[in-house]
Design goal:
This protein is an all-beta fold. It is built from no helices and 11 strands. A hairpin with a 5-residue loop joins strand 10 and strand 11.
Length: 106
C-alpha cells in the first residue's frame, strides 16, 4: 500500500494552531507518519557552542502529523478530499479522491 500524501501534493491543515493553512508538501516520513509543508512548522532551535560550531539560533522545520492534513483536489475552490486506493484498467494501484466521485489523482 502506498502513502496517501506524497511529495509535491498541495494539502490543507485541518487541525491545530495552523488550521486552514495551505501549502505544498516538501518531504514525507511514512515511518513516523509526518509530513513537512512549506511555511508550516517553522521553529527556532537554540544551539549550544561546541568544538565544531558556534552558538546561536538555527531555523529548522518540524513535520506535522499526516492525519492533520487533507489533500486539496481543486486549488481554485480550495476543496479537500480523503484519499483512497483502487486498481485502474491496467491493473495498477492508483490514488483516488473520495469526495470527487472516486476520480483518479494525477
Amino acid at each position: 500500500m502506498g502513502t496517501r500524501i506524497k511529495t509535491g501534493d498541495t494539502v490543507k491543515v485541518i487541525s491545530g494552531s495552523t488550521k486552514g493553512t495551505t501549502g505544498k508538501v516538501t518531504k514525507v516520513l511514512p515511518a513516523e507518519n509526518k509530513v513537512f509543508i512549506e511555511g508550516v512548522g517553522n521553529r527556532t532551535r537554540h544551539m549550544r557552542r561546541s568544538m565544531y560550531r558556534a552558538s546561536g539560533k538555527k531555523d529548522i522545520q518540524v513535520g506535522i502529523d499526516a492525519s492533520k492534513v487533507a489533500l486539496v483536489i481543486d486549488t481554485k475552490a480550495g476543496t479537500t478530499s480523503r484519499v483512497g486506493f483502487a486498481k485502474n484498467n491496467d491493473g495498477k494501484t492508483v490514488r483516488i479522491a473520495r469526495q470527487a466521485n472516486n476520480r483518479e489523482i494525477k
